[in-house]
Amino acid sequence: MEASLLRQCPLLLPQNRAKTVYEGFISVQGRDFHLRIELPEDLQMKNARLLCSWQLKTILNGYHQIVQQRMQHSPDLMSFLMELKMVLETGSDSTGISMKVMDTLEVALKKKQELCPPPPPPQFYSSLVEEIGILGWDKLVFVDTCLSTIKLKAEDASGRKHLLTLKLKAKYPAESPDCFVDFPVPFSVSWTPQSSLISIYGQFLAALESLKAFWDVMDEIDEKTWVLEPEKPTRSATARRIALGNNASIHIEVDPKHPTMLPESCFLGADHVVKPLGIKLSRNIHLWIFLWIVAFVIHINLMVPFLIKCVIIPNVHSLSIKYAYMSG
C-alpha cells in the first residue's frame, strides 16, 4: 500500500513512525490542495479525521455526506484517497462552480494581502498614542483598530467645525501620512521624519485661519440669499446659483484666496429678464471696486452687504459679465 500511496499522492507523507498521521497535498485537475488525515491506532478509516484547507473545503461543499460515506466504507487510506480524488474531480467538473468560486476567493485573498501590508513595529503604536495624548484626546473623533486611520476635529474662529482625516503608513513618521480635508484649496503639508500629529494639526489650524474670510462670505450668502444650487454645499464648494426672481438666477464663483474681490458671474434666464440686469451690473461695477478698496484699507469685510445688494437690486457684481439666455 505504501508504494501505491506514494505513486498516487507523492506529496502526502506520514508525520510519525506509526503512520497514523499523514499531511501534505492532493492533486486535482493540476492543482495541489493541502490536507491532513489522522488515523486511529488500528488504522481504520471509519474512525479517521480529515482536515483540509479552505480551498479544498470550497470544492467539497455539498459533498460532505459522500465523503463521510467513503470514509466509513473504505478499507484503507489508499482506497479512501482514490475515492476522494474521484469525488473532487466529479464535484468540480459537474458545474465548474466550485473551481470558479475558489479562484475568486484566491484572487480576493491576494488583493486583501496586497491592501493590508504587514503591521508596523510596536514603537509605531506607542509613539502614536503618545502624540495623541500631547495633542489632546478631546480632538480625536475616530481611530480604527489598526491605528492607520485617524480623524481629528477643530473649530475655526467663527465656530465652524472641521475634520482632518489622516491615513498613516507603516513607516510613519518616516513617511508623511495622507491628509484629507474639506477645503476649497489644496492642503499641502510640510513634513519631515521628525514631524508628528502635532505639526500636522498646527498646519491644519493655520489653513483654517487663512480660509476664515472665504467661509464667512459663503455663510452670509447661504443665510441671506435664496441659494438654488448646491442644495447642501460643502466647505470646499466655491460656487453658488442664487435666485433673482422672475425665473432668473445668477451663478457666481468666489475665489477662496480673494473672497471679497469681484466673483466671476453668469446670469441665467430669459433674455428680456437678464439683459437689464447685465446693463445695471456694467454701469455700477465701479461701486464694487471703490468699496472693496475701502474695505481692504480699513480691514473690514464689507463684501456680503454689497453682494446682497447686488442680488436684490443687481447693480454691482462682476468685471466679467456672462449671459445664458433661455427661449421665451
Task: Describe the model.
- GO terms for molecular function: ubiquitin protein ligase activity.
- Residues 122-211, 214-288 form the FANCL UBC-like domain.
- By secondary structure, this protein is α+β, with helices and mostly antiparallel strands.
- It has 3 domains: 2-115, no CATH class; 122-210, Ubiquitin Conjugating Enzyme, CATH 3.10.110; 213-326, Roll (Ubiquitin Conjugating Enzyme), CATH 3.10.110.
- It is 43% helix and 22% strand.
- It contains 10 helices and 13 strands.
- The strands form 3 sheets. Strands 9-10-11-12-13 form a 5-stranded mixed beta sheet, with helices on one face. A 4-stranded antiparallel beta sheet has the order 1-2-3-4.
- Helix 1 (2-8) packs parallel to helix 4 (77-94), helix 2 (54-60) runs antiparallel to helix 5 (97-115) and helix 8 packs parallel to helix 10.
- The longest helix has 28 residues, at 271-298.
- It is elongated and about 105 Å long.
- Residues 94-98 and 293-328 have low confidence and may be disordered.
Number of strands: 13
- Nearest-integer average pLDDT: 80
How do the strands of the widest beta sheet line up side by side?
9-10-11-12-13
Q: How widely separated are the two ends?
A: 95 Å
Q: Number of helix segments?
A: 10
The percentage of residues in β strands lies in 15-25%
Structural shape:
elongated
What structural class do helix, strand and pairing data support? alpha+beta
Order of helices and strands: HEEEEHHHHHEEEEHHEEEEHHE
Number of domains: 3
Helix fraction bin = 40-55%
- Main sheet? 5 strands, mixed
- pLDDT < 50 stretches: 94-98, 293-328
Q: Could you tell me the radius of gyration in angstroms?
A: 35 Å
Protein name: E3 ubiquitin-protein ligase FANCL isoform X3
Keywords: Membrane, Transmembrane, Transmembrane helix
Pfam families: FANCL_d1, FANCL_d2, FANCL_d3
InterPro entries: Fancl, FANCL_d2, FANCL_d3, FANCL_d3_sf, FancL_WD-rpt_cont_dom, UBQ-conjugating_enzyme/RWD
